[in-house]
Amino acid sequence: MGTTSKYVTLPCDCKCCMFVISKTQWEDGDIDYIIMAQDSRLDDDYNTVWGRIKRAFAVLFEKPVTFNDVFIKEETTFRKLVSDMTALADTGL
Length: 93
Known about the structure:
Blueprint: E1 3-11, E2 17-26, E3 31-39, H1 49-60, E4 65-72, H2 75-90
Antiparallel strand pairs: 1-2, 2-3, 3-4
């Protein structure tokens, strides 16, 4: 099945992590969103030696390592998130 994807990325100020939002439209018209926190450096909290080795090689070749992501299937849920984020940005404390 064919897809079209677009991404919005926001690196953190120290450039070690990246906030990524992807939107994928499938051939049948379905749309999926994924929100990810990606890290390009090693962390000390891996469960296995093999996991550490794989991620170390990924970092060497500048591949992002995704630690967490949120899958959103409904367009209305994503639009509410964007609306809530806009309202939060506009709110004074």
